[in-house]
Design goal:
The complex is a heterodimer. By secondary structure, chain A is an all-alpha fold. In chain A, 70% of the residues lie in helices and 0% in strands. In chain A, helix 1 packs across helix 12, helix 4 runs parallel beside helix 7 and helix 9 crosses helix 13. Chain A is globular and about 75 Å long. Chain B is an alpha+beta fold. In chain B, the strands form four sheets. Chain B has a six-stranded mixed beta sheet, with helices on both faces. Chain B has a five-stranded antiparallel beta sheet with strand order 13-12-11-14-20. A five-stranded antiparallel beta sheet of chain B has the order 15-19-16-17-18, with no helix packed on it. The longest helix of chain B is centred in the middle third of the chain and has 18 residues. The chains are: A mainly alpha, B alpha+beta. The interface between A and B is medium-sized, with 16 and 23 residues.
Chain lengths: 292, 364
């Protein structure tokens, strides 16, 4: 087999380009990480320290940013007075609940759509994904009316249902791609071995595991980050982290310290999740096209 | 360990007919080969036996039990697939143990059976490997192992050795045949390779375009093909066919090809008379039943020119140009003949086949 490596020759332009690439990466890194760093540092400062600014033009004064006495007051306040423990729990239940429901229903629907041939299958598939094409705002009012008359507004099941409405089509499409890649013969072998349909589906589940993993992450991310559903459908009884954080901005006083701490609390778990299953995410999104 | 009856079975995929009015009786412990080119309905038939396809109409019996509506898991069959269909995330041991696990056998029994099968197939040392770490032949043995651990009533093989290299294939032919005799299990084996059919099967069912052409022992199929398709499909190199005319002179009948004349035996003449053959027929003769002699003055039925010679090691294939057609002759290797040389070809009259040119049916 011919080598697929691209032959490169050294030239002044190419050297200059590689320097530019490095410069770009540094700028991009600072651009991305700086706000997060400021958020993290500020969450440990009291308000006076947080707004301490160096004199204009005094670049040496950057050190001021790090000149403070760390305090965990904001975190303590979040978890005692502001009940963030409850909101974290709500966020987790809503995100994981929706992920589990979507994966369960999505797996079965995707399996059926991958294996069965019937009239109108293409149209059905398109209809499923088309429900994701409408902007969330467009469906919010009718959804709210339906949820209110069913008593689902302000409850966690309501929120899970709302997220599932949006996650399920996505689940079906992603997982169908994975099931399509599993040769039917493997299932047939299982059937001949003495399995029924359920058992043969369970038999091939490990083969679509990367898809399920990738989907769970995307699903959790969507639900965790969501503000619109949470503020309208989850308002009251099922308040999640983004909504709770937004409520820290009050007419009389913007509680910067608490907001920073809340930001850390909200983003940290997802960043860990992303790091943890980064590999899955790549294989998942390329639909198994990338070979390990 | 059961007989199989396929009764008036039809299979349609939408409006496409795959199998037409199929009737086959597979005897207890028999090795039956379904042979035919791709798209002839042999795999569909096998999959209906396995329960992986619905039967459009007709009935299939295992012994006295009608299996039409019985799902694969309750048919007590084992199947080896063309692409092996191993479970990629399981080890060889787990792959082979799966059918037993489904039967809820206890662990010691499972281990005993798997090791027994692995020993028989000589893959004991591979039990802890995953399918990706196996060669084609090893994968195929694992697939066979998965089939034999359970001692099923019926083995179904769907071109199991089609993807192996030639040497391994010829080795596995012997192994599979030996295994089937040893386990004494009714076996249906699908292949497009006529050699596999001839070498392994007790009986062969030749299929073409969804229709069963002929069912018989390898000897019957090879020596007495029922029509032109079977005659041409079975045998390597394939049978030679020549369009001839029948000429009758008194009691004797002869076949005329251009200006060459071939007198038939009395028995052959009688068959053609009784069956009222049309005067236009097709002659069929296997390359083994021809003799060739070089030179202009050979005193043989056909005069020809050498077109090409293909040495096969011990034997040699000679393609000879008769003018309108070419004929392949197989003989022991000699260093005779360059392309263009004149030669004479003689036909062994007793090995001759004559087919109706319209229907392809064989007279003899």
């Amino acid at each position: 087999m011919a080598s697929r490596e691209i032959v490169r020759y050294k030239s002044p332009a190419r050297s200059a380009f590689s320097v530019l690439v490095i410069v770009f990466l540094i700028v991009f890194f600072v651009w991305t990480v700086l706000p997060l760093a400021i958020m993290l540092i500020s969450s440990f400062k009291d308000l006076l320290d947080a707004f301490k600014l160096p004199a204009e033009g005094d670049w040496g004064g950057v050190g001021v940013m790090f000149d403070f006495t760390p305090t965990s007051a904001h975190y303590v306040e979040l978890f005692t007075e502001k009940h963030f423990g409850l909101y974290i729990r709500n966020s987790l239940i809503a995100a994981l609940g929706s992920a589990v429901v979507s994966v369960f229903l999505g797996t079965m629907a995707a399996y059926a759509l991958s294996r069965a041939e019937f009239r109108g299958k293409k149209h059905l598939l398109f209809w499923i994904i088309s429900t994701r094409m409408a902007p969330v705002v467009a469906v919010m009012v009718p959804l709210y009316v339906i949820f209110r008359s069913s008593g689902l507004v302000g409850t966690l099941p309501g929120l899970i249902l709302a997220y599932t409405t949006f996650n399920l089509p996505f689940a079906i499409w992603i997982l169908k791609g994975f099931f399509d890649n599993v040769p039917y013969a493997i299932e047939e072998a299982a059937l001949v071995d003495g399995a029924n349909r359920w058992q043969s589906l369970r038999m091939i589940m490990p083969l679509v595991a990367p898809g399920v993993g990738a989907f769970i992450v995307l699903c959790v991310l969507f639900s965790w980050n969501d503000f619109l559903f949470a503020s309208i459908i989850g308002s009251g009884g099922a308040k999640t982290l983004p909504v709770a954080t937004a409520e820290l901005v009050q007419p009389v006083k913007i509680q910067w310290g608490s907001i920073m701490a809340a930001g850390v609390v909200t983003t940290a778990p997802m960043m860990f999740l992303g790091l943890l299953i980064r590999r899955y995410l790549v294989t998942g999104l390329t639909m198994g096209a990338v070979r390990e | 360990m059961t007989s199989i009856s396929i009764k008036d079975v039809w299979k349609y995929y939408g409006k496409t007919m795959a199998v037409k009015e199929l009737n086959i009786e597979v005897r207890d412990n028999e090795f039956l080969c379904l042979l035919g080119p791709s798209g002839c309905g042999k795999s569909s038939t096998l999959r209906m036996l396995a329960g992986l396809e619905f039967i459009s109409s007709g009935e299939i019996f295992f012994g006295d039990l009608k299996v039409n509506d019985i799902p694969p898991r309750d048919r007590d069959i084992a199947m080896v697939f063309e692409n092996y269909a191993l479970y990629p995330h399981k080890t060889v041991f787990e792959n082979m143990a799966n059918p037993l696990k489904m039967q809820k056998l206890n662990k010691t029994d499972i281990k005993e059976r798997v090791v027994w099968a692995a020993q028989m197939l000589e893959i004991e040392e591979l039990l802890q490997r995953k399918p990706v770490e196996l060669s084609g032949g090893q994968k195929q043995r694992t697939a066979i192992g998965r089939a034999i651990v359970r001692e099923p009533k019926v083995f179904l093989f769907d071109e199991p050795i089609a993807h192996l290299d030639a040497q391994l294939r010829s080795h596995m032919r012997g192994e599979l045949k030996h295994l089937q005799r040893r386990l004494e299990t009714t076996t249906v084996y699908v292949t497009h390779d006529q050699l596999e059919g001839l070498t392994m099967a007790d009986r062969i069912a030749v299929m073409h375009e969804g229709v069963l052409q002929q069912l018989g022992t390898p000897g019957e199929i090879y020596n007495h093909p029922i029509n032109e398709f079977v005659a041409g499909f079975v045998g390597e190199p394939p049978m030679n066919f020549l369009d001839c005319r029948i000429e009758r002179a008194g009691d004797s009948v002869s076949l005329v090809y251009d200006n060459m004349n071939l007198s038939l035996s009395g028995e052959q003449s009688k068959i053609l008379e009784v069956q009222n053959a049309a005067s236009e027929v097709r002659l069929g003769i296997r390359p083994d039943n021809l003799t060739i002699e070089m030179g202009e003055n050979h005193g043989m039925e056909f005069s020809a020119k050498i077109f090409v010679t293909e040495p096969l090691g011990g034997d040699m294939l000679i393609e000879a140009d008769l003018g309108r057609d070419r004929m392949t002759i197989k003989r022991k290797i000699t260093d005779l003949g360059a392309p263009g040389d004149a030669c004479g070809i003689a036909i062994d009259i007793d090995s001759l086949h004559v087919f109706d040119r319209e229907t392809g049916e064989a007279f003899f």
